Amino acid sequence: MAxxxxxxxxxxxxxxxxxxxxxxxxxxxxxxxxxxxxxxxxHADGWQVHTIRDLTGSLDGEAVEVTxxxxxxxxxxxxxxxxxxxxxTLRVRGASQQGSSFASLILTVAAPRWKVVGSIADALGxxxxxxxxxxxxxxxxxKAAA
Length: 146
What we know:
Elements: E1 2-9, E2 15-18, E3 26-27, E4 29-32, E5 35-40, E6 50-59, E7 62-70, E8 80-84, E9 89-96, E10 104-110, E11 114-119, H1 120-123, H2 132-145
Parallel strand pairs: 7-10
Antiparallel strand pairs: 1-9, 2-6, 2-8, 3-6, 4-5, 6-7, 8-11, 9-10
């Protein structure tokens, strides 16, 4: 498999991602001769790398699917909107099978810390609305009282 990559800094506020289920970072490990070793992978800045794969969101207004790298194994709740809490780097890697003219772009964002800045329920207006069954009960109560 041939691989090439490019790393770019991400502007503050340019990236927001959503967790569709509770997301728990997994420890990343070094590889040698195509085999995983027991050696934890360490970022160039010195922190142990933990990853969460397949997060969707927006980077400068464009839809993206990325893997994030973080320094913490702390879980992120379902439906959370997250962004890097400080400097972040986007790594774009092209991967293709030998002899293939097709390549996939793989996006990885490295930031030692991430922060929750909202929830998908808020973005959809679900957090403020009463559940449908409560609204119906309320309407029935009003009719009964009249």
